[in-house]
Design goal:
Blueprint lengths: L8 H54 L11 E3 L4 E8 L5 E8 L14 E7 L8 E2 L2 E3 L6 E8 L2 E8 L5
Antiparallel strand pairs: 1-2, 1-6, 2-3, 4-5, 4-7, 7-8
Length: 166
């Protein structure tokens, strides 16, 4: 009796099952890597957006224009601030523009999921200086503005030195 060499059905089934297991594990590894890259990209985009928002606020407060001809006053309340500033336009030059900063529909400048924004103002620098909740003047601006951005349980506190004091 001659016996032919080859694989039995059980050997083929075991080989297919092991191959399927290897392919499944490789898929899970690669999909985990892709998900991690996507989460990293989303986090990077959010950080970029917030950095751009901080930069925009620093530029707005740094080039504030109060008390000059054609400029409005400075009206700062605890939940909103209004002033005139020099802003860069898409053409590349600076134009005087009115600015109103407040939280609207859960958004503030570049931050999302914002529950509240609070502003405080300081008149003079120094150890004994106190922050006030309101600053309304047609001819002058505070020395600095403190912005507290509440998102959930976290609160970001930003300090901006005001540029021109009119």
């Amino acid at each position: 009796m001659t016996r032919t060499r080859g694989f039995t059905l059980i050997e083929v089934m075991i080989a297919l099952a092991l191959s399927a297991l290897v392919v499944l594990l490789a898929h899970r590894v690669f999909s985990g890597v892709v998900d991690g890259v996507e989460r990293l990209g989303n986090a990077r985009t959010a950080l970029d957006r917030e950095a751009n928002g901080r930069r925009a606020l620093a530029e707005m407060f740094g080039s504030l224009d109060v008390g000059t001809e054609g400029a409005g006053g400075f009206a700062g309340r605890s939940s909103q601030v209004e002033f005139t500033t020099w802003q860069r336009v898409p053409g590349g030059w600076l134009e005087r523009r009115p600015v109103v900063l407040r939280a609207e529909d859960g958004k503030f400048v570049a931050w999302s999921d914002v529950s509240s924004v609070e502003f405080d103002y300081i008149l003079e620098p120094g150890a004994n200086a106190t922050w006030v909740r309101e600053w309304i003047s047609p001819v002058s601006a505070p020395v600095a503005v403190r912005v507290r951005i509440a998102r959930g349980a976290a609160v970001d506190t930003l300090l901006f030195i005001v540029g021109s004091r009119g």
